[in-house]
Design a protein that fits this description.
The structure holds two protein chains of two kinds. Chain A is built from 14 helices and no strands. Chain A is mostly helical. In chain A, helix 6 packs across helix 8. The termini of chain B are close together. Chain B is globular and about 80 Å long. The N terminus and C terminus of chain B are likely disordered. The chains are: A mainly alpha, B mainly alpha. Chains A and B meet through helix 1, helix 2, helix 4, helix 5 and helix 6 of A and helix 1, helix 4, helix 5, helix 6 and helix 7 of B.
């Protein structure tokens, strides 16, 4: 589930026939029998209850718990509200917090500055209808079907100190996963390896939807290929750019599997998501404290989810 | 994907050759870690320990046999099956119900409904863990459903949480797909006196087969690959699905990378098979909506 889907409006699809004036809608509703109305209610209500119960209520509970001193074991009626104390503790007396924030930002920067542009670059190259394009695409896309947990194991074969290929070839003695100075970079390479193929695929789909006459017009005007891309094609891809941006941000925020299989997010691999998990299933269960961390994640993600929804829904209406 | 039409195929200029050279190099670099894992898994530990990994020889299938036996892969694959199949079917069913209502009627609340589902798919799972963990340890299940007698440490819990998370994506894709279907279909069905349920099941669903196939391929891969929920919401070792069981096997495999690679290849095989057999569906699922066909 570390994948973020591309949810994008279908520009090729005409908008739903908007023949329904208010009067028409009422008439249609009245046409529904009692059974029909019960069926419709159930069709919406059952999935809605599931999503509310398993996603939205826990999200709300996380925010509430972040203001309490609950220990996670005692009865719920012994909960006391402590205001912003958990947040204060997180920022001031929790040593892994600052490294975790730094690592999450580094994760975002690495994906955004290196992996995402590279994926886009490959998509532009592959969009040229080359011979063998299918092979290139498959090779680049293959890591995307593997789970990030598995990717941690696959790269261990290259990174391991005593049995890894890298040390064998370069005659070095670096513990790529264990050394807290380098391990964040090691996992970032593995994570970028997967991200590139994913972004490549998203842009490739976007590029196929670009009106060819735009490019032809630019070519007639004598614009170079690079100029055509940056001045003509890239602006047209705006919705996809926004979606890729949000996907990258949320992927960096949700990064978890890879560091968890390496060392449970310690010793150089601290991430907010791993800290939250350590505070619940780890040795010390500090609920209010963990909830404060989780709330920070929620707030950041909700900002970007809102941007995302606004983009895809606007595309949808157009 | 891209069709090589003779008319558009250009001559091999030096620039083209350079481009192909670059793409081949990148593709091989991208395939390399996987190829290395396969290669390592086929060599005996004694041979690579004596001669190093940069050597040739020591070919054997024993790693697979040992890994399969010590790690009880049979059981873990079954667990993945028990979780993935019901979760995917339930996700597609529930999501298509909501999508149908959203696409079929133009109510003001549809946008809100779509937002509630889609956003749920994008939230960071870890941020919901604390209340969910407590909830899972409080909700009882009868013993014939789970020997833990709780939602915690049961297949049911994992199925439900996966469904709740994955519904959003499917609702979004399916509702877009269904909105594109001609509305005359429903008018005709109404004239025939078809109930809402029949319109959904016998008119809309058969037309959504391409979208459902693409989503099913994608969801099978995602739920099979799911790591976090199984790691935190399961306890009994032999109930873990295969993706998260790998981590528990780490201790046993710790000193032997050849075994680790055999285990990794075994875990990767189902997703690779799906990918190669259903690549079209897979790619379409991810980009559904971005381009037609």
């Amino acid at each position: 589930m570390s994948d973020l889907p591309l949810i994008q409006a279908d520009r090729a699809v005409p908008p739903p026939a908007s023949t329904t004036s208010t009067g028409g809608r009422r008439r249609r509703l009245r046409l529904l029998s009692r059974t029909d109305r019960v069926v419709i209610t159930l069709m919406v209500l059952v999935p809605l209850l599931l999503v509310t119960g398993f996603v939205w209520l826990p999200a709300a509970a996380t925010v509430l718990l972040s203001g309490t001193n609950w220990d996670g074991i005692g009865p719920l009626n012994e909960i006391e509200f402590v205001g912003a104390r958990n947040y204060d503790d997180v920022v001031n007396i929790y040593p892994p917090f600052v490294p975790a924030i730094q690592h999450n930002l580094l994760w975002l920067a690495a994906l955004f500055v290196v992996a995402t542009p590279f994926g886009m670059f490959l998509a532009v190259l592959l969009d040229k209808e080359l011979r063998g394009s299918r092979f290139y695409q498959t090779a680049l896309y293959l890591p995307v079907v593997l789970s990030l947990a598995l990717i941690g194991f696959v790269w261990q074969l290259l990174y391991s100190r005593d049995q890894g290929l890298i040390n064998a070839v370069f005659n070095s003695n670096v513990d790529w996963y264990g050394d807290s100075n380098v391990n964040i970079w090691a996992v970032l390479v593995a994570s970028g390896w997967r991200h590139v193929g994913y972004i490549m695929l998203l842009y490739l789909a976007g590029l196929k939807g670009v009106d060819p006459s735009l490019r032809e017009a630019a070519a007639v005007d004598g614009a170079s290929e690079a100029r055509t891309f940056f001045r003509v094609v890239f602006p047209v891809l705006r919705p996809i750019n926004i979606i890729v941006l949000v996907v990258t941000v949320i992927e960096s925020l949700r990064a978890f599997d890879l560091v968890w299989v390496v060392n449970k997010g310690r010793n150089g691999l601290e991430l907010i998501s791993a800290l939250v998990t350590q505070n619940v299933v780890g040795e010390a269960s500090r609920i209010g404290f963990g909830s404060a961390l989780a709330t920070i994640m929620l707030v950041v993600s909700l900002v970007f989810i809102t941007i995302y929804l606004a983009t895809v829904m606007r595309e949808n209406r157009e | 994907m891209s069709v090589d039409t003779p008319a558009r195929r250009r001559k091999l200029t030096p620039a083209r050759l350079l481009l192909h050279g670059f793409l081949i190099a990148v593709s091989l670099a991208w395939l390399f870690p996987i190829a290395w894992a396969v290669l390592t898994s086929l060599r005996s530990y004694d041979y690579t320990a004596a001669n190093g990994y940069v050597s040739f020889g020591g070919w054997t299938f024993d790693n697979y046999v040992t890994a399969w036996r010590t790690a009880e892969f049979g059981q873990h694959f079954l667990n993945s099956l028990y979780i993935t199949v019901p979760a995917v079917l339930l996700t597609l069913f529930l999501a298509s119900c909501v999508a149908f209502v959203i696409a079929r009627f133009s109510w003001k609340l549809n946008v809100v409904l779509l937002g509630v589902f889609t956003a749920a798919n994008l939230l960071p799972q870890q941020a919901l863990l604390i209340p969910l963990f407590r909830m899972f340890t409080e909700v009882p299940l009868p013993e014939f459903l789970s020997d833990s007698e709780l939602l915690y440490d049961s297949y049911w819990g994992l199925i439900l949480i996966n469904v709740a998370f994955q519904c959003g994506f499917c609702v979004f894709v399916l509702s877009n797909y269904m909105k594109a279907l001609p509305r005359d279909l429903y008018e005709a069905a109404m004239v025939d006196g078809a109930s809402i349920w029949r319109q959904y099941w016998q008119v809309t669903m058969p037309l959504c087969r391409p979208a459902l196939a693409a989503l099913a391929t994608l969801e099978v891969t995602w739920i099979y690959n799911e790591f976090f929920w199984a790691t935190v919401l399961m306890r009994t070792g032999d109930k873990f699905p295969v993706t998260s069981s790998l981590n528990n096997l780490r201790g046993e495999f710790f000193t032997d990378n050849n075994l680790v690679s055999a285990g990794s290849v075994l875990v990767a095989i189902p997703t690779l098979v799906i990918f190669f057999m259903l690549q079209r569906h897979f790619v379409r699922g991810l980009t559904l909506g971005a381009s037609k066909g």
